[in-house]
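User: Hi! I have a protein structure encoded as tokens and I'd like to know what sequence might fold into it. I'm fairly new to this, so please keep things simple.
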């Protein structure tokens, strides 16, 4: 586990710190170190006597400890509550030597985390700083849309309160939304398993605006593979590219991103391409070259 995360856990009051440390250690052993399952959440409520709101706010320093912020040193932490009851941590991630626009916001990181884990509905986000306009727009693409609850240290708001007169998928005639959109499994391809995984991820990506289905697979130094996929947005700019999606998850899983051994991007032929930016984002973190396949 990241040393910053361990320190944040140990800075919590004792009953919370000891139970949380045991839970996250168990989750790490199971390969999911940055979430709390519904039963674990209930156990924390019982052990601490805190209510939902107080517990969510108390855990924000732990979420923020996942941030990687070589540029701003400003750590944003998010706890996303999915319909399953699992809580997913998210944190901001900045890329050295890259434009500021390449950054992943904590809210995107948490939503991406829940989505890649198979969640189809997001109920609430607890955040240690007020979500920026870009994030409000990103949240608006999720199934509850205007009904998502945003819990901040200063109060609770619905997205409708924070993003009135919203622009969203329906303005562009799109009836699907992020997380619950049905995936378009692509016909399997033969060959390199890393490309195959990226290809599978592309089939589950959310690209109703460009039609450019895109998936990324990363291989760690010890041969572990994980995938990310595109999450487009009606307003285009808060879209999360597949490379960012994969790197955000790898960071939350505790990977040393400088040791990524191989990476693959698969995308379908469309009027957009993620290749140039994906190469730059990857190259800013590690030596791995980007294998690439563009499907007809
Ligand atoms: N940031 C977030 O993660 N979420 C927000 O909504 C506000 C801003 C991050 C982006 C950047 O890494 C840092 O905070 C400074 O803006
Ligand atoms: Zn933001």
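Assistant: Happy to help. Inverse folding works backwards from shape to sequence: for each of the 296 positions I chose a residue that suits the local structure. Here it is:
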């Amino acid at each position: 586990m990241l040393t910053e995360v361990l320190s944040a856990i140990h800075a919590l009051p004792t009953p919370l710190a000891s139970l949380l440390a045991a839970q996250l250690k168990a989750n790490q052993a199971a390969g999911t170190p940055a979430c709390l399952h519904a039963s674990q959440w209930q156990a924390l409520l019982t052990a601490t006597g805190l209510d939902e709101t107080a517990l969510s706010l108390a855990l924000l320093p732990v979420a923020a400890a996942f941030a990687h912020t070589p540029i701003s040193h400003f750590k944003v932490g998010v706890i996303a509550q999915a319909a399953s009851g699992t809580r997913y941590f998210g944190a901001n991630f900045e890329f050295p030597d890259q434009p500021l626009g390449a950054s992943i916001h904590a809210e995107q990181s948490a939503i991406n985390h829940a989505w890649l884990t198979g969640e189809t509905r997001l109920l609430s986000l607890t955040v240690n700083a007020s979500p920026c306009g870009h994030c409000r727009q990103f949240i608006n693409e999720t199934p509850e849309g205007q009904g998502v609850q945003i819990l901040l240290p200063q109060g609770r708001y619905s997205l409708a309160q924070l993003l009135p007169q919203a622009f969203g998928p329906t303005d562009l005639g799109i009836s699907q939304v992020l997380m619950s959109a049905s995936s378009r499994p692509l016909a399997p391809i033969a060959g390199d398993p890393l490309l195959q995984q990226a290809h599978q991820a592309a089939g589950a990506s959310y690209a109703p605006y460009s039609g450019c289905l895109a998936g990324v697979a990363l291989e760690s130094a010890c041969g572990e593979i994980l995938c990310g996929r595109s999450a487009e947005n009606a307003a285009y700019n808060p879209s999360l590219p597949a490379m960012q999606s994969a790197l955000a998850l790898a960071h939350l899983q505790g990977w040393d991103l400088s040791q990524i051994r191989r990476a693959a991007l698969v995308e379908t032929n469309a009027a957009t391409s993620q290749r140039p930016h994906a190469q730059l984002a990857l190259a800013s973190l590690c030596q791995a070259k980007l294998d690439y396949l563009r499907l007809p």
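A useful reference point when you look it over: The first helix runs from residue 3 to 10. Feel free to ask if any position seems puzzling.
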